[in-house]
Amino acid sequence: xxxxxxxxxxxxxxxxxxxxxxxxxxxxxxxxxxxxxxxxxxxxxxxxxxxxxxxxxxxxxxxxxxxxxxxxxxxxxxxxxxxxxxxxxxxxxxxxxxxxxxxxxxxxxxxxxxxxxxxxxxxxxxxxxxxxxxxxxxxxxxxxxxxxxxxxxxxxxxxxxxxxxxxxxxxxxxxxxxxxxxxxxxxxxxxxxxxxxxxxxxxxxxxxxxxxxxxxxxxxxxxxxxxxxxxxxxxxxxxxxxxxxxxxxxxxxxxxxxxxxxxxxxxx
Length: 268
Description:
By secondary structure, the protein is an alpha+beta fold. It has helices at about 1-25, 25-60, 65-100; strands spanning about 110-120, 130, 145, 150-160, 165-170, 175-180, 185-190, 200-205, 215, 230-240, 245-250, 260-265. The longest helix has about 35 residues, at about 25-60.
């Protein structure tokens, strides 16, 4: 019995040494490579054989349409994944619509028309966006477009029967009268010189400005409703020799995140 155990240990040691030699000695590796190729071929034959035997056994235990059943299950899993993605999107849209509907600063003669952003206008893809609401929904030119949080994002410039186009605040030739609530002389004009940032200019020197102050729309421009929030003062530019102050405004809503918007219309 002890002899057999010793023999087994010796064989095991020889096998270990042989494996080490195969890995470390190129000559031995070359000599053994034909046998390795044969082993790979045998492995492939055995794998094919297992698959060949597995098919009738699967049919015996699970039915003759096993492959079709598995394929159908894979399709259902893929469909469930698509449905889950759609559900997440619908939940996000529902949240945005809920925010729009729950706005509390809407006057009795004002009406909200919820709309989806459907694409960019090729004439000015950076600053013109299209929505799926138009004249048939009560939308008119020069009306105000707000984001889900109720902040101003743009102005309607063209209206079709079912599609309208609005220009973002940082678009060219967009000048909007704005003010800082609670400060008598803290008013000015909002525009974008570079198409990237918003600047509040022509603010009287005696106007009080503070970083973080709220900026809202002011009266004086046709179609723009007053007291719509836009953003906050991010930076103050005060030059004593100038007649005016300037401020950089950080908008509440980023144009790149726009999906669901609302048009503030006047009900006559």
